[in-house]
Design brief:
SH3 type barrels; Fumarylacetoacetate hydrolase, domain 2; 6-stranded mixed sheet; binds manganese (II) ion
Length: about 425
């Protein structure tokens, strides 16, 4: 086992058992102090550790980033471009500095005060400048639910689905971080019983519960990333809400797929949880039948036992209510297959690219990852604790996504992905 993942590790910084950020996690993010200074940091308990200051003090001298302070940047991109091994080396240094019994930082009052900031005193920024954003469609349960609703319940999957990790190119410029409001989009829709389309605010606004992976080092145009090298190109994961305007999507998506129904906003959580931290939670994925083509075959266990939840809080509710609870382990296609498929034609991946898993839906009715499925195309509205009904997301609603892998006495979590919906006219 990677020693940074040892469940018995403890930090000299107090971390509660239900914290998302124990010493076994150490996710990377970009934060802004109240002074306006921006740097790359690591979450530990309820604190942020400033890596730019640590770098200036010489603490990364033995790592691949020794000569370039890639942490004094407004994004993770330069750090991610150094590759997975550099990330692991930095993680090892941080783990050692924060470990119980290591006095180097703990007893250096000046450096400690410069490097540790309460999370409540910082604003988290978008972790990477996203050059490319792709969204897959890799949950068989989700694809089956959608196919049953809109096509044929007896034959819900299209013929390509079990042979290809289906995906589409999304819009990188509208990827936003947790805490940024989402404005209800305007657009063109057509009701089933109408003769002509109309223009107006989206009426069927939805979330999609997803997990995104972010790439480290990329590949040259014309080269491929095979499954047995894909993990070296993946830095880690974030929670992702693929906001969806179902009425706009329904009218526009044939024949070329999602367009304006998706491109108005995609929200992600701010902390990049590394593959190193998630390593102990790898589990076998679903049996793939038929066997995929050779370029999509892989070895090892590449599903993750990761619990995922969506909560909703309407404007007049004092606390959120849980809408769904599922697990990332159900995903049919894994990240290695997604990255290998995407680059099989030689397209190039950049450091900091974002790849969404597709809506994560589980096998039961209470584990569905979108309002479209939870309320079954609006036919089964749900009643909130405040008495209001929902079929889709209303103005003023806050959607909160949470995710974590549960260890023995600790959890590797993502923190919250929280977004509030503004009316189209606000
Ligand atoms: Mn999606």
């Amino acid at each position: 086992m990677n020693p940074t993942c040892d469940p018995s590790l403890k930090s000299w910084i107090p971390v509660s058992a239900d914290s998302d950020f124990p010493i076994q996690n150490l996710p990377f993010g970009v934060f802004c102090r109240r002074s306006g200074e921006v740097a790359v940091g690591v979450a530990i308990g309820d604190q942020v550790l400033d890596l730019a200051v640590l770098h200036g003090a010489g603490h990364f001298s033995g790592t691949p980033v020794a000569t370039d302070n890639v942490f004094a940047r407004p994004t993770l991109n330069d750090f991610l471009a150094c590759g997975r091994a550099a990330g692991s080396a930095v993680r090892a240094v941080v783990s050692s500095l924060l470990a119980e019994g290591n006095a180097t930082l703990r007893d250096d009052t000046t450096l400690r005060n410069q490097t540790l900031v309460p999370q409540s005193d910082v604003e988290m920024l978008l972790p990477t400048q996203v050059g490319n954003y792709v969204d897959f469609y890799s949950s068989k349960e989700h694809a089956t639910n959608v196919g049953s609703m809109f096509r044929d319940p007896s034959n819900p999957l299209l013929p390509n689905w079990v042979h290809i990790p289906v995906g589409y190119n999304g819009r990188a410029s509208s990827v936003i971080v947790s805490g940024v409001d989402v404005r209800r989009p305007m657009g063109q829709t057509k009701a089933d019983d109408a003769d002509a389309p109309t223009y107006g605010p989206c009426r069927l606004l939805d979330f999609e519960l997803e997990v995104g992976f972010i790439t480290g080092s990329g590949n040259e145009l014309g080269a491929q990333i095979p499954t047995d090298r894909a993990a070296d190109h993946i830095a880690g994961m974030v929670l992702l809400n693929d906001w969806s305007a179902r009425d706009i999507q329904k009218w526009e998506y044939v024949p070329l797929g999602p367009f304006l129904g998706k491109t108005f906003a995609t929200s992600i959580s701010p902390w990049l949880v590394t593959l190193d931290a998630l390593e102990p939670f790898r589990v076998p994925g679903p049996q793939q039948d038929p066997q995929p083509l050779p370029y999509l075959q892989f070895s090892g266990d590449w599903a993750y036992d990761m619990q995922l939840e969506v909560w909703l809080q309407a404007a007049d509710m004092s606390e959120p209510v849980r809408l769904t609870k599922t697990n990332f382990r159900y995903m049919y296609w894994n990240m290695l297959q997604q990255l290998a498929h995407m680059t099989v034609n030689g397209t190039n991946v950049l450091p900091g690219d974002l790849y969404g898993s597709g809506t994560v839906s589980g096998p039961t009715e209470d584990s569905r990852g979108s309002m479209l499925e939870i309320c079954w195309k609006g036919t089964k509205p749900l009643t909130l604790p405040n008495g209001q009904q929902r079929k889709f997301i209303a103005d003023g609603d806050t959607v909160i996504m949470r995710g974590w892998c549960q260890g023995d006495g600790y959890r590797i979590g993502f923190g919250e992905l929280r977004s509030t919906v503004l009316s189209a006219s606000e």
